[in-house]
């Protein structure tokens, strides 16, 4: 396919590019620049024309399942758990006898949150240690 050939783009992509191009032209951008920006936008949003790629062979059901699994793993990580049900940070399961300097910054921030220390999210590790001691 020669460079600049738009034959593999869907009708929807072509309409979108035309609409974007018109919008740029109304704002005073030259015709050539408006066209280039419009197609760059379409390519960025949809990945270009009907290209072969990893997404073509996957069914819609499989894509939905992958998205759901990815979201589940993201929530687990955010909550401090590993996606498979364990605890992400092995150190956070330690007993309270651990000294503050042995704790990670994230552990110190959690401890500061329990004690309602103001400004804890912006503090460095040594500042958190001082605030908690």
From TrEMBL:
Region described as Disordered: spans on this chain: 1-133
Biased composition (Low complexity): 53-62, 85-101
Residue span, Rho termination factor-like N-terminal domain: 100-131
Coiled coil start-end: none
InterPro entries, per the entry: Rho-like_N, Rho_N_sf
Composition bias type Basic and acidic residues, residue spans: 1-36, 63-72, 103-113, 124-133
Pfam families from the UniProt entry: Rho_N
Protein name as annotated: Rho termination factor N-terminal domain-containing protein
Organism: Pseudomonas flavocrustae
Species classification: Bacteria, Pseudomonadati, Pseudomonadota, Gammaproteobacteria, Pseudomonadales
């Amino acid at each position: 396919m020669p460079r600049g050939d738009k034959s593999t783009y869907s009708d929807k992509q072509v309409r979108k590019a035309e609409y974007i191009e018109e919008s740029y032209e109304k704002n005073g951008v030259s015709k050539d620049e408006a066209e280039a920006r419009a197609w760059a936008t379409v390519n960025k949003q949809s990945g270009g024309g009907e290209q072969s790629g990893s997404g073509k062979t996957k069914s819609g059901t499989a894509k939905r399942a992958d998205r759901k699994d990815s979201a589940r793993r993201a929530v687990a990580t955010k909550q401090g758990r590993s996606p498979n049900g364990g605890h992400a940070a092995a150190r956070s399961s330690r007993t309270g006898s651990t000294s503050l300097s042995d704790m990670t910054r994230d552990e110190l921030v959690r401890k500061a949150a329990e004690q309602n220390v103001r400004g804890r999210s912006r503090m460095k590790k040594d500042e958190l240690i001082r605030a908690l001691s």
